[in-house]
């Protein structure tokens, strides 16, 4: 199990670097463009290839490939496994090329016939440029899934760093050239495409080092047919989930010029704790779950899922609570630069608070979905995702009439909560070792520690604001974040240890390995 936590630390550290660079990237983008139409149109256009990345690469296709690749590798050996992988990769590449070609042609036709106007026309223009990124990132995600199965995590986890560096370089060029908003947006699109190529090259090179050799494997096999049998229903479920995101942004785009930007910003901030540990835990535990299924070891499956869930709760709950109490100084410190005004900060604050409440729901729903996928059950997540799409659509449309962008965020969290409950129920009915009652004690321990942590941070914030005189609000915000985050973390983990949290030893090992560079 020590190796598993080392892998989590590797992914966590890599993802932390990516998230920090991503945060810097977003700070620079919002400083350059603010919450303007240009920024909203770029975010909407970037949503389309990212939708397919999560839909194909990191979603249904990876979930279908990992269990089959694991089976073939264990039962038929490396040579047959790599042959099977090439068969899948060729078919995925052809499918992506066809999808991108049709998408570009359709968007060009809509613009050519002048069926889109105003901000919608701008969004379509940028989407035509960014759609090819989908090919690079989806192929990279599939190769990364193969690396994860054979125990290689670092290269795949580092790929987002390359995208962020490419975008930051493009922004730097824009600042140096004194470019206007329009020019900066097109430079951003170029940075995305270059970053996508780099994201594909790094995991492909690492996979090549492990013995994989790419070739045009046009023949099919029974294993490929198994992948498609798992992929198609999984695709429907993943499509519904990603349509949820797209629908929210399309509704926000219809509200005004800035709603897409502030919604995106709030969701990006919640992705920082998700990416550092939550997705790292899911990435490492998914192959473990698939292995347990392959070995027909129900007890090990339940033990792995229960432990992964406890670790996710131990990270996501305090992260959400921390964002709630530090929302205002956090947004102002990071993004109140250039064209991003205090009015934009005020518009983002309630959205961040809403998304922070939903953080545990998003995390656990994602992990439970992977648990069902590891058991090759693609149908249950599809049915649940369909219901959640309906909830998000209806609740989002109704709530946006009264609360604007905040209503869309609330509808998203509501749908995530329902999804989490139903997925967990579906998994617990299939695996007796997964019992909801077994999480009551750790949940109470985590919640109590998080609440006391929040009270400590609030008291510290009031003390700083009333006692310490600083030259500017920006310096005060830096002090509040600089003190609040480490003090809150120390208090939280000390309380977990005091409460004798079941997985405290694993959390300590994970933190220690982060600090020692995994030596």
Number of DSSP E strands: 0
Return the domain count. 1
The succession of helices and strands, N to C, reads HHHHHHHHHHHHHHHHH
Mean model confidence by pLDDT: 82
Give your account of this protein's structure:
- This protein has one domain.
- Helix content is 86%, strand content 0%.
- It contains 17 helices and no strands.
- The protein is globular and about 70 Å long.
- The model is unreliable at 513-519 (pLDDT under 50).
In short:
The chain has helices spanning 2-33, 37-76, 78-112, 118-130, 133-149, 154-176, 181-209, 222-255, 259-294, 298-325, 327-335, 342-374, 379-403, 405-430, 440-467, 473-498, 504-515. With 519 residues, the chain is an all-alpha fold. The protein has one domain (2-515).
List its traits.
single chain; 519 residues; mainly alpha; 17 helices; globular
Q: What secondary-structure arrangement, pairings included, does this model have?
A:
Layout: H1 2-33, H2 37-76, H3 78-112, H4 118-130, H5 133-149, H6 154-176, H7 181-209, H8 222-255, H9 259-294, H10 298-325, H11 327-335, H12 342-374, H13 379-403, H14 405-430, H15 440-467, H16 473-498, H17 504-515
Helix pairs in contact: 1-6, 1-9, 1-17, 2-3, 2-4, 2-5, 2-8, 2-9, 3-4, 3-5, 5-7, 6-7, 8-9, 8-13, 8-14, 9-10, 9-12, 10-12, 10-15, 11-12, 11-16, 12-14, 13-14, 15-16
């Amino acid at each position: 199990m020590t190796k598993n936590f080392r892998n989590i630390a590797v992914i966590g550290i890599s993802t932390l670097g990516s998230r920090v660079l991503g945060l810097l990237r977003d700070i620079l983008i919002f400083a350059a463009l603010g919450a303007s139409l240009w920024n909203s149109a770029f975010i909407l256009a970037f949503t389309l290839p990212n939708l397919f990345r999560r839909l194909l690469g990191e979603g249904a296709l990876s979930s279908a490939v990992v269990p089959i690749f694991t089976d073939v590798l264990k039962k038929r050996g490396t040579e047959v496994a790599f042959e099977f992988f090439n068969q899948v990769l060729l078919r995925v590449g052809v499918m992506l090329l066809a999808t991108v070609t049709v998408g570009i042609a359709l968007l060009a036709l809509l613009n050519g016939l002048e069926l889109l106007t105003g901000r919608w026309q701008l969004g379509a223009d940028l989407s035509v440029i960014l759609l090819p990124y989908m090919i690079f990132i989806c192929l990279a995600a599939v190769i990364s899934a193969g690396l994860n199965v054979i125990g290689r995590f670092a290269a795949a986890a580092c790929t987002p760093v390359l995208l962020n560096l490419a975008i930051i370089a493009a922004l730097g060029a824009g600042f140096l050239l004194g470019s206007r908003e329009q020019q900066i947006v097109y430079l951003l699109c170029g940075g995305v495409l270059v970053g996508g190529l780099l994201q594909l090259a790094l995991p492909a090179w690492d996979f090549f080092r492990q013995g994989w050799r790419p070739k045009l494997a046009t023949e099919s096999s029974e294993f490929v047919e198994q992948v498609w049998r798992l992929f198609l229903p999984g695709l429907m479920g993943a499509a519904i989930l990603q349509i949820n995101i797209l629908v929210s942004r399309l509704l926000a785009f219809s509200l005004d010029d800035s709603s897409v930007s502030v919604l995106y910003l709030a969701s990006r901030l919640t992705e920082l704790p998700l990416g550092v540990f939550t997705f790292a835990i899911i990435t490492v535990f998914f192959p473990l779950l698939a292995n347990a299924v392959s070995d027909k070891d129900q007890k090990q499956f339940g033990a792995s899922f229960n432990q992964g869930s406890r670790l996710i709760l131990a990270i996501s709950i305090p992260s959400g609570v921390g964002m709630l109490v530090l929302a205002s100084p956090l947004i102002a410190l990071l993004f109140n630069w250039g064209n991003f005004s205090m009015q934009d900060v005020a518009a983002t604050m309630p959205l961040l608070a809403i998304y922070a409440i939903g953080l545990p729901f998003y995390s656990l729903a994602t992990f439970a979905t992977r648990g069902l996928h590891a058991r090759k059950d693609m149908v249950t997540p599809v049915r649940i995702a369909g219901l959640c799409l309906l909830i998000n659509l209806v609740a989002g449309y109704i709530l946006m009439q009264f609360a604007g962008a905040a209503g869309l965020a609330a509808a998203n969290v509501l749908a995530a909560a329902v999804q989490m409950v139903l997925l967990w129920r579906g998994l617990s009915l299939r695996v007796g070792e997964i019992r909801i009652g077994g999480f009551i004690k750790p949940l109470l321990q985590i919640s109590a520690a998080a609440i006391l942590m929040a009270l400590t941070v609030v008291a510290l914030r009031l003390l700083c604001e009333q006692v310490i005189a600083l030259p500017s609000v920006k310096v005060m915000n830096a002090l509040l974040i600089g003190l609040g985050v480490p003090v809150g973390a120390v208090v939280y983990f000390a309380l977990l240890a005091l409460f004798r949290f079941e997985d405290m030893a694993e959390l300590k090992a994970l933190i220690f390995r982060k600090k020692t560079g995994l030596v």
